[in-house]
Amino acid sequence: MMRLKARDPRWRERLDRRRKRGLRDQARVLDGARLILEDVRKNGDRAVLRYTLKFDGVRLKAADLRVPADEIAGAAAGCDRAGLAALRLAARRIERFHRRQVRKGWSIGGRGERLGQRVTPLARVGLYVPGGRAAYPSTVLMTALPARIAGVAERVMCTPPGPDGEVSPWVLAAAGLAGVTEVYKVGGVQAIGALAYGTATIRPVDKVVGPGNAHVAAAKRWVFGEVGIDQIAGPSELLVVADDSARPDWVAADLLAQAEHDPDAWVGLVAVGSGARSRNLADRVVEALNGRLRNLERRRIAAAAWKRNGLVVEAAEMETAAGVAAAIHPEHLSLAVRDAGRWVDRFCCAGAVFVGGYSPVAVGDYVAGSNHVLPTGGAARFASPLGVDDFVRRTGVVSMSRAALEGVGDAAMTLASLEGLGAHAASIGVRLSRKGGGRAGKP
Fold first, then answer.
1. Which residues are catalytic?
2. Domain 235-382's class?
C-alpha cells in the first residue's frame, strides 16, 4: 500500500507504473489467447473440450456441453427459499432500472421528406458468466435481463463447469429467471472463441458481453470485429472519498469487499481534511482495514491486493479529491462525505458512484438495480456500464420525394464535387436531370 499527499506527484507515478506492468503482462496473455482462439476456430468442439479438460480439469463430451432446458427449468428446486427470494428481488430491481433505458425509434420531416432512426435488437448474443470454483448468479441477471428487455431473441450463456462437471444450480436458477435461452458448460478463452466463431455445438453470436479474467479480456480483444463486444474488463477497482464524517470501519469494509475479488484488484482512499484531519482519518481507516483483514475468509487475496495496489491519498479539500478521482476514473467511486449528494455532479468520473454512508458498493453488485458490469482500467473516461443499448443497433432511415431531393440535391452535388467524387454527384444528378457536379462544377 502506498500513502501519499495529494500535492505529491508520486501518486500519479504509482498509477503509471501499475499500468505499465499491466501492459507487459497483457502482451503475454494476448499471445496465449490468440493461440487458443486459432485452435477453436480451426478445430471447434474438439479444441473446446481439450481446453476444458486442461484448464477446468473436467472431461466432457460434445453432447455434454449444452445444459438441457429441463435442467435449467428445474434448477430452482435445488435452491433454498431465502436465496431464491433474494434473486427474485434483484431481478425485479434490475429490470425496473433497465427498462428506463429502452430507446425508441423516431422520425422527422414533411413535404415529401422523412428522416428517422430505427432501433432494433441484435438477434443472438453471448453472455459470459465467470464460474468454475465460484458461482455468480448476479452476473447472469446483470447480463441477461438487459438483453431480454432489449428484445434479443437468443440469449446464449457460457460459464465454466465446476469440478463435478456441472453448472451451479444457483447460476441455472438465475438463467431461468432471466430468460436465458441456451446454456453451455464452457469457460475461458475457448468460450469466447466458440461464441465468436461457432462450433458444431455452439452457433456463433453477434456480440459477446460480460466480465472475466485477464485471459477472457484478451480473447475479447482478439475477436472484436468478428463479433461485437461490450468492453474489455479488468480487475475490480474502488476509490473511496471520505471525510471525518465517515465511519472508518465502514470505509475499510468497502475497500476489502473489492480487494477480495482478485490479487490485482485496485482499492484506494482519498482522505479529505485540512491539517491533521486527513492524516488521522487515513490512520483510522488503515487500522480498521488491518483489523478486519485478519478475520476475512479471502484474506490472502485481499491482503495481496491491498499490499500491491492499495493507495491512500491525503487531500486538504474536496476539489482536490475530485481531481484525484478524475485522474483515476475508477470503476466504483464511493462518496463517504458530508452532504454527499451535492458532490455527485463533481464526481461523475466513474463507472458507478455510490452516494453516502448507507450506499455500500456491494449493494450495487447485487440488488440496487444498476448494472455491475462496469468499465475498468480508466475506461470510465469514455465508456459506460452495460445496459440495454449494448443489445440494440440504431439504423438511419432516409425517405425523399423528387421535390424534397430537388431542394437539397444541388448542395449534395456541390459537396460531392468538392470531395472529388464525381460518381456521387452523378448519382444525384441523374435523378434530377442535372449535368456536372453542382455549383462547384465538375470534379
1. 331-332
2. alpha beta
